[in-house]
Amino acid sequence: DIQMTQSPASLSASLGETISIECRASEDIYSNLAWYQQKSGKSPQLLIYAANRLQDGVPSRFSGSGSGTQYSLKISGMQPEDEGDYFCLQGSKFPTFGGGTKLELK
Amino acid sequence: EVQLVESGGGLVQPGRSLKLSCVASGFTFSNYGMNWIRQAPGKGLEWVAYISSGSSYIYYAETVKGRFTISRDNAKNTLYLQMTSLRSEDTALYYCARRLNYGGYYFDYWGQGVMVTVSS
Q1: Which of A85, A101, B40, B97 is the most exposed place for a label (fewest CB within 10 A)?
Q2: What is the tens place of the pLDDT at every residue in B9-29?
Q3: Are residues A26 and A2 in contact, defined by beta-carbon separation less than 8 angstroms?
C-alpha cells in the first residue's frame, strides 16, 4: 500500500492568512492526488484533484501543487468557513488517505 | 442534485453479518464507478471497496478482502456492501461515494454515512 504522511496535524491561522498543508507519498503517485475538506459532522468535500485541478464550485483561494511524492494544499487568505479537517488522498487503484490536518481560526 | 443515501447500519455482534445499501439519485448511476469508504470514530478515512459502472472491476482494501462484498443494481440505482465475519475494528461510519469521471480514483460526491457498531 502507498502510505500518505500529512503535516501538520493541526494548524491555527488568522483571518486572511495564507496557509499550506503538505502530503508526502511513500512512492511516486504521478500527481494522482486529491484534497478534501471535512467540517464537523459532515461528509468530506472534494477541493482539488489531479494535484492541481480545482473542483467545480470550490473558491479560487484553494490551490494545489506538487509532483512525484510531495504535494501541498494552499489556502490564500483564511476565511472563517475554512475551519475544518483537511485530508489528502492518493488516487491510485487502491486509494489511501493522509492522517488529516485540523485547521482552526485563531 | 446528486444524492447518495445510505442505510442498513446498526449494532451487530462480532462474527455476524450486515448489509449496507446506498440509493443514488440526481445522476445516471450506471455511468459511474462507486465506492465504500469508512471512518472510525475520531479517526481518519479508509477506502474499503470499489465497483466499476458495469461491475466488471471490483477492488477491496486488504483489511476487508474475503469478508466484504461490494455489488450494485443499476436498475434500482443502488449500491450494496455485504459485510460478514464482522470485527470490532470494522466499527465506523460507512460512506458511499461516487468516483469522479476523470481518471484516477477520486470521490466527488459522498452520502451522509451510516454507522456500523460491532460489539457484544
Answers
A1: B40
A2: 999 999 999 999 999 999 999
A3: yes
Parallel, antiparallel, or unpaired for β B68-73 and B78-83? antiparallel
User: A36 CB contacts (<8 Å, ≥6 apart)?
Assistant: A44, A45, A46, A47, A86, A87, A88, A89
Mean pLDDT over the full length of chain B: 97
φ, ψ (nearest 5 deg) of residue A68: 65, -110
Nearest-by-Cβ selection for B95 from A43, A93, A94: A43
Q: How far apart are CA B84 and CA B87, in angstroms?
A: 9
* pLDDT band per the 50, 70, 90 thresholds, residue A92: confident
CB of B41 less than 8 A from some CB of A: no
With b for 16 or more beta-carbon neighbours within 10 A and e for fewer, the A93-104 pattern comes to eebbbbbbbebe
> Nearest Cβ partner of A50 from B45, B104, B112?
B104
Confidence of residue B94 (pLDDT cuts 50, 70, 90): very high
Pairing of strands B114-118, A45-49: unpaired
pLDDT digits (tens, 9 = 90+) for A20-68: 999 999 999 999 999 999 999 999 999 999 999 999 999 999 999 999 9
Is-contact A43 B110, C-beta < 8 A? yes
Specify the amino acid at residue A24.
Answer: R
Nearest CB to B110 within list A44, A50, A55: A44
Per the structure block, which three cell numbers stand in for B91? 466499527
